[in-house]
Specification:
Layout (H helix, E strand, L loop, with lengths): L2 E5 L3 H13 L4 E6 L3 E3 L14 H4 E3 L1 H7 L1 E5 L2 E5 L4 E4 L3 E3 L2 E4 L4 E2 L16 H12 L4 E7 L12 H17 L5 E7 L10 H13 L3 E4 L3 E5 L2 E4 L2 E4 L2 E5 L2 E2 L17 E2 L12 E3 L4 E2 L10 H19 L11 E7 L4 E7 L3 E7 H16 L3
Parallel strand pairs: 1-2, 1-9, 2-5, 9-20, 11-12, 11-17, 12-13, 19-21
Antiparallel strand pairs: 3-4, 6-7, 7-8, 10-18, 14-15, 15-16, 22-23, 23-24
Helix pairs in contact: 1-7
């Protein structure tokens, strides 16, 4: 019996499981993750302002694992042995004939004083903290920012910061409290959102100006203090700081012989193979992939890469060479709680559609459809 191990329980991992089972009903599939649950991170932008509760976005996976006939191992991975044929966890060693790594990334929390900020995409607990802090405030300064990994340009997740910024602005206006708050957006980039395309940069800056949101752009980050953001271009006071740092690879990658990119991710080729490894594949935030400089770290891309990884792994099991590649594609709706701006980009073209209530409801509808597969 052919055994495949999938590491992770996020977008890429769950897509890989579905594709593996559809490809071969007889596969033995082991899944390793610390918790048997799926967190729908795109929806966490709505937790601080009450459109979503944590329970809406955390999906227990027991039923899905049962339907997919997989063997779930609740554990944290600590390393690999036997050229990837054995996965080492805190509890046991799990063998495989093929391995798909989709265990996500890790935020670079190295800036001095970063503990004085909240990482918006740091999980359900982080967004609940933002919600509770906001609810207790009657006024003050709110700072929203992001940075990247200088050694890995693709390892950043700035898009959600715009959504937290615009969503909280809209909520404060609805509450009749916006005039008592100052909102500041900051980033080392001179053109925030450049990975979304030049039209998106212009649209985002115009939207900030329309909403009377101050900007602090193009200055390298130096750190934080309690109620203070510090950059090489100056510093400013803030009562609540939301900051998304750049990303790198999981700590357990250090206990493997897998090749790494300069930024610490697993080095992959266009077929989602980890370079130079036998039947070891990677999808999503764990990997550094060839492609355009704007290649996104987002759920849609993780799904595409996971599908490619499965196609190529199954080809190898059949004695064929891996030939499938993934499409470099960025698709997102920058949501503001009541409306949204559609941004799309491929290697051939890019476009931005103006903010509309239709796109907000499309984002909510997509969430409902996506989660149906795992409930």
């Amino acid at each position: 019996m052919t055994r495949v191990t999938v590491i992770g329980a996020g977008f890429g991992a769950l897509t890989a499981i579905r594709k593996l089972r559809a490809a071969d009903a007889s596969l033995h599939i082991d899944v390793i993750a610390p918790r048997p649950e799926f967190v729908y991170f795109p929806g966490t932008i709505w937790i601080p302002t009450g459109l979503r509760k944590p329970g809406d976005l955390v999906i227990p996976l027991a039923n899905f694992f049962r339907r997919m006939q997989v063997n779930y191992h609740q554990a944290a991975v600590t390393g690999l042995q036997d050229n990837g044929r054995s996965v080492i966890t805190e509890k046991e060693k799990i063998g495989n004939d093929g391995l798909i790594i989709a265990s996500g990334g890790r935020f670079l929390r190295k800036l001095p004083g970063i503990e004085h900020s909240i990482t918006p995409c740091g999980g359900i607990a982080a967004t609940v903290e933002i919600r509770d802090r906001l609810a207790a405030m009657e006024g003050g300064t709110l700072a929203f920012g992001f940075a990247g990994n200088p050694k890995e340009p693709s390892a950043m997740r700035g898009g959600p910061v715009f959504e937290f910024l615009f969503g909280i602005d809209s909520w404060l206006r609805k509450q009749g409290k916006r005039d008592r708050f100052k909102l500041i957006f900051f980033t080392p980039a001179e053109k925030p959102g450049a990975r979304l395309g030049p039209k998106a940069v212009s649209g985002l800056l115009k939207e900030m100006a329309r909403r009377n949101i101050d900007t602090h752009l193009g200055h390298k980050m130096k750190g934080f203090e309690a109620r203070k953001v510090i950059t090489e271009g100056g510093e400013f006071e803030a009562d609540l700081i939301l900051f998304m740092p750049g990303m790198t690879g999981n700590e357990w990658f250090d206990n493997t012989d897998l090749p790494r990119s300069p930024g610490g991710l697993l080095k992959a080729n266009a077929h989602c193979q980890v370079e130079g490894q036998d039947k070891v594949y990677v999808a999503g935030d764990s990997g550094s992939f060839p492609g355009p400089e704007w290649l996104p770290k987002q759920a849609h891309m993780a799904d595409l890469q996971a599908s490619t990884a499965v196609t190529n792994l199954m080809a190898e099991f059949s004695g064929k060479m891996p030939t499938d590649t993934f499409k470099s594609e960025l698709v997102c709706i920058v949501d503001s709680r009541t409306s949204g701006m559609l941004v799309a980009r491929t290697e051939k073209r890019s476009f931005v559609l103006p903010s509309s209530r239709l796109f907000h409801w499309a984002k909510r509808g997509f969430e409902w459809m996506y989660l149906r597969k795992y409930r």
